[in-house]
Design goal:
The complex is a heterodimer. By secondary structure, chain A is mainly alpha-helical. Helix content of chain A is 71%, strand content 1%. In chain B, the strands form 3 sheets. Chain B has a 6-stranded mixed β-sheet, with helices on both faces. Chain B has a 4-stranded antiparallel β-sheet with strand order 11-12-10-13, covered by helices on one side. Chain A: The chain crosses the membrane at residues 20-41, 84-102, 123-151, 157-178, 190-210, 244-266, 304-321, 348-370, 398-419, 439-460, 467-489, 509-532.
């Protein structure tokens, strides 16, 4: 067909452009799965008696079923349950970004115009994008399977497990193809695909929560909403138990159907525009926008909303789990007990959840602060500082947004966890206040990490991102979640600010370490500001 | 105060031996439109970024509106407006939002003036920056700058991407600002624009002011172009003192003449029985050729 002329050539172009990014996604995901599966395999090899009770916790607790299904007591299945949702979301995002990059973004940047002026059919770009994304998901399925085999799991279950994740990517390849036709902008197409991903997650979670638990408490039969979601299809393959393959096959017709819809839509619209024209915006700036702080808020409020939804959801899930924790025994109980004994096992559990939330919020703060660098490298700082805005004013706008955003996210997580935890333990509303305090205790450590990133951005203005993420990874790895089990020397552990955060609510908050962390954050902020005042801006030519 | 901008011996190094400004001198008088002419890479944008305090001078003196650009940046920026050469704005904001934001950050915006400018430049303020064409993005920057009534306007290649009609609107606005006594530094590589608007001009080459003055002052340094038809074959023209770049074909000759030899050359031409003759003042194109040589391509 003429409409597809040039598709093969465009596939090669897309492969050339994605030769780094797609392998990085796939290898990163496979490496993560191999490492975590090996970790669980080793853990249950040492304590085989724990596998059945641990599986029952996951099966019986509706909150845990939000994250996925486990069928039967099997190490591979248990490990996959811990990773599957994260990996499925990553596979979907990888596919969405790849498809949008070669369709809507190419149009927005004017590249599609160049291609279509040549001997290239109308449908060649989406066809090439879908082909490449589908191929990437095939490779992903194989490598995820191989990763679990490498971690000592049976081949049949491992391969089914890999497919159960990659099929989500396949389905979202089709979703993104349609979204690219509907939306007029790259951001819009990604946002729309992301919204569908959120819906797919909710349907699968709902179906699993409403499911019925088998008498042996090792299996859940999901309710019908789970079958409306590609994430649900993957879960229904039940890797390491049933190894059903036909749900995986649903994804390919779904992708082809969605691609057909995209082709139909493409025949009805102009190049450069979506089916939905871009909405007109405000002709005047609102009062809230008319300051650097308002401008930064406007640029990142969408990101903050996404983080808010995520932390709200996880707070509710982990809060609902509180009752289950009380009944824990053995190694898991010991692990939680390392966080302090004052509040008993439950207090230790809440403490560890607050540390996870603190780390997550630190990641948000770093993504926000790296926008300082983007302002410079993309040149948007030039009109800003060309007006009567000082460098310090600019930095302060980010600091205010980072501080308020971090405090807001921590409180949101604590409130969600407190409300859900209070519900399951019989309406104990005082928990909300206790957890809110415990969450805010994380704030000085988050600020210290943020201030260190500011120093990096000011000291090495050309490429601060790599070093910034390196210190994030370092502080997390040496932090309370992983540090103690890695047998690292004390001086190294002391470098992570998160190791100095008091174990609240398991123990009383101590003012000393918090003041120390806050003071450190202040000193680094002043150093960052001093560096900024001295140096040239690094602007695009 | 009679100088809006005063730069003397300005040096800016970008490391690794890349010297962007090499003892630059530049003076813009209060109330004048000053052309800042040079090819790409000559150092125009670097100069303006130093004047805005975005870059720090390595040596020399730069003064703008009587202040020191690095130290007094914020106070000075309330009194000036800037149009960057490469307009990088926030893709998710509308043009109207950007104009209001930048105006407010400068210390206030005249709403009537803003609306009148939007009308004159035929700009739709409700579209998002990413949806504008390059020319329309340029218009956003121009309207944002001109909406503020300030003492000095720094315009870095402000008409790139504008169509001729809009270039006309731009020139009208600049003339109105000059009539109101405002000072303007207009960086450009478009010769006709500078010739049409500027009182004085500074030519920058490799980070150094090659020449500065009014057009009259610069003209006397240059040659006059002559195209002549004569009855006697004008082959002898090639050897006359003060004649350059001569091309002779039959009774037709084209050449340029040093100003102090012009009288001599005219006397010689009379002896060849002139039939028709066109002399023209040197255009800025020729000024450029003179300063940068034929091997440097001049983008226009």
């Amino acid at each position: 067909m003429n409409g597809f002329a040039g598709t093969a050539r465009l596939v090669r172009l897309a492969l050339r452009r994605d030769r780094i990014v797609l392998p990085a996604w796939i290898l990163g995901m496979a490496g993560f799965l191999a490492a975590t599966t090996a970790m669980f395999a080793e853990q249950y090899a040492r304590h085989p008696a724990l596998l059945v009770p641990d599986t029952r916790i996951v099966v019986e607790n509706p909150g845990m079923r939000v994250l996925g299904l486990v069928t039967g007591a099997h190490v591979g299945g248990y490990a996959l349950h811990r990773d599957a949702l994260t990996l499925a979301v990553l596979a979907a995002v990888m596919s969405m970004l790849a498809v949008v990059r070669h369709t809507r973004q190419a149009e927005e940047l004017g590249r599609e115009e160049m291609l279509r002026a040549g001997v290239t059919g109308r449908y060649a770009s989406p066809a090439a994008a879908v082909t490449v994304a589908f191929g990437a998901n095939l490779v992903l399925a194989l490598l995820l399977g191989a990763a679990m085999v490498a971690a000592g799991q049976p081949v049949g279950g491992s391969m089914a497990g890999g497919a159960s994740i990659a099929l989500v990517g396949v389905a979202f390849t089709g979703v993104a193809a349609v979204a690219s036709q509907l939306s007029s902008t790259t951001r819009g197409a990604i946002g729309l695909s992301g919204a569908v991903l959120g819906l797919a997650f909710l349907l699968a979670a709902l179906g699993n929560m409403l499911g019925t638990v088998a008498p042996d408490a090792l299996r859940v039969t999901s309710a019908w909403p789970a079958w409306l979601s590609p994430i649900g299809w993957g879960q229904q393959m039940r890797p390491f138990a049933d190894n059903l393959w036909w749900p995986a096959a649903l994804a390919v017709p779904a992708m082809l159907l969605l691609f057909g819809v995209a082709v139909l839509l493409l025949g009805r619209r102009d190049v450069g525009r979506g089916v939905w024209p871009e909405r007109r915006g405000a002709a005047h700036a609102s009062a809230a926008l008319r300051s650097p702080t308002g401008l930064v808020w406007r640029q990142q409020r969408g990101t903050l909303l996404g983080w808010s939804v995520g932390l709200l959801g996880f707070g509710a899930v982990f809060g609902a789990l509180s009752e289950e924790i009380k009944g824990l025994e053995g190694e898991a109980a010991e692990w939680y007990a390392t966080f302090g004994s004052g509040g008993g096992l439950l207090g230790a559990y809440w403490t560890s959840m607050m540390q996870i939330a603190g780390t997550a919020v630190a990641v948000y703060v770093v993504t926000l602060l790296l926008r300082l660098h983007q302002d410079e490298s993309r040149g948007t700082i030039e009109p800003l500082l060309g007006a009567a805005v000082s460098r310090l004013h600019w930095l302060r706008a980010y600091a205010i947004n980072a501080l308020a955003g971090a405090a807001g996210l921590l409180l949101l997580f604590a409130v969600a966890m407190g409300v859900a935890g209070g519900q399951v333990s019989g309406g104990r509303m005082s928990l909300v206040g206790d957890l809110a305090g415990a969450a805010l205790v994380q704030l000085p450590a988050v600020c210290l990490l943020g201030a260190a990133v500011v120093v990096l951005i000011m000291a090495m203005p050309r490429r601060p991102a790599g070093a910034s993420w390196a210190i994030v990874v370092f502080t997390v790895v040496t932090g309370p979640m992983f540090g103690p089990s890695l047998n690292l020397p004390t001086w190294l552990l002391n470098l992570s600010p998160f190791n100095h955060v008091p174990n609240v609510p398991a123990e009383e908050a101590a003012a000393g370490p918090l003041l120390g962390l806050a003071l450190g954050a202040l000193v680094l902020s002043v150093a960052g500001a001093a560096l900024l005042r001295r140096r040239d801006l690094v602007l695009p030519a | 105060m009679t100088t809006a901008i005063s730069i003397a011996g300005l040096v800016k190094d970008f490391g690794r031996g890349a010297r962007a400004l090499d003892h630059l001198d530049l003076e813009v008088r209060t109330g004048e439109v000053h052309g800042f002419l040079g090819p790409n890479g000559a150092g125009k944008t670097t100069t303006i970024r130093v004047l805005l305090g975005l870059l720090r001078a390595d040596a020399g003196r730069a003064e703008i509106l009587g202040g020191e650009p690095w130290r007094d940046a914020v106070a000075l920026h309330r009194r000036l407006a800037y149009v960057p050469g490469e307009v990088n704005l926030w893709p998710n904001l509308t043009g109207g939002e950007v104009i209001d934001l930048l105006g407010d950050l400068r210390g206030g915006i005249d709403a009537r003036r803003r609306d009148r400018l939007l009308d004159r430049f035929q700009l739709d303020p409700a579209k998002r920056i990413r949806a504008y064409s390059k020319g329309n993005r340029q218009k956003v920057a121009l309207v944002a700058a001109f909406s503020s009534d300030v003492e000095l306007y720094l315009l870095d290649e402000p008409t790139s991407g504008l169509d001729p009609l809009m270039e006309g609107v731009f020139q009208d606005v600049v003339r109105e600002l000059r009539a109101a006594g405002r000072s303007i530094l207009l960086s450009s590589h478009i010769l006709s624009e500078v010739e049409a608007l500027c009182d004085r001009v500074t030519i920058i080459r490799d980070g150094r002011a090659a020449e500065s003055g009014t057009f009259d002052e610069l003209r006397h340094l240059t040659r006059t172009s002559v195209v002549v038809d004569t009855a006697e074959p004008p082959a002898s023209v090639i050897g006359w003192p003060g004649v350059h770049d001569a091309h002779v074909r039959g009774g037709h000759a084209e050449f340029s003449v040093d100003p102090d030899e012009l009288n001599h050359v005219l006397a010689h031409l009379v002896g060849l029985q002139v039939r028709s003759m066109v002399t023209s003042p040197p255009t800025l194109e020729e000024l450029f050729k003179r300063h940068y040589g034929a091997e440097t391509a001049v983008r226009s």
